[in-house]
Write a structure and sequence with these properties.
It is built from 6 helices and 5 strands; from the N terminus they run αβββααββααα. By secondary structure, the chain is of the alpha/beta class.
């Protein structure tokens, strides 16, 4: 996450250039990484709402589709809002560490630092808010798409047991954040 005021202002400027949504410093969402083999003990806890075993990974990206924050430790059955509620990034926002906001989908709670779309917009202003929100937040969806295309194992799923899958995921994250030149 951007730490200095200058870094935060630059991130906010880049997000604003997408759809004129002010003060955004990150787009947040979760994605499920399929796990092919789950041990019988507690394996049902990894079954997500779509019916397959997975690890639910939370990502915050910037306007350039770069991952700024990631949480990889949750089972597939855990809801996105719980992952955010219990992550360190939420604590940092509540402590005032950032001068901007996050944009999330309707699976997250709307807070002073995490804005979500309006479920039933009725005015032109509310519809404009939603259009701008969706276009700006789409950066995290595009980030997931690029990430899974570059590392096909994220698209196909991780082989082995949960612990092996988590180690594989850590290797992918390492090469995502520090790619070889």
């Amino acid at each position: 996450m951007p730490t200095t005021l200058n870094e935060q202002q630059e991130t906010i400027r880049k997000f604003r250039s997408i759809a004129n949504f002010p003060t955004v410093i990150g787009a947040i969402d979760c994605t499920h990484i399929r796990v092919k083999k789950v041990n019988a003990d507690g394996g049902q806890l990894y079954i997500n709402r779509k019916g397959f075993s997975s690890i639910n990974v939370q990502v915050v990206c910037d306007a350039d589709l770069k991952i700024m924050d990631i949480v990889t430790r949750w089972r597939g059955s855990v809801h996105d809002s719980r992952i955010f509620r219990e992550c360190r990034l939420k604590q940092r926002f509540e402590a005032g560490a950032f001068s901007g906001i996050l944009l999330g989908d309707s699976g997250y709670p709307c807070t002073p630092y995490l804005f979500t779309p309006l479920l039933n917009p009725t005015t032109p202003q509310e519809e404009r808010y939603n259009r701008s929100h969706i276009r700006t937040r789409n950066t995290v969806e595009r980030c997931f798409g690029l990430w899974k295309q570059r590392f096909r194992c994220l698209l196909r799923g991780m082989f082995g047991d949960i612990e092996t899958a988590k180690k594989q995921l850590l290797h992918v994250l390492y090469y995502t954040i520090w790619p070889s030149t």
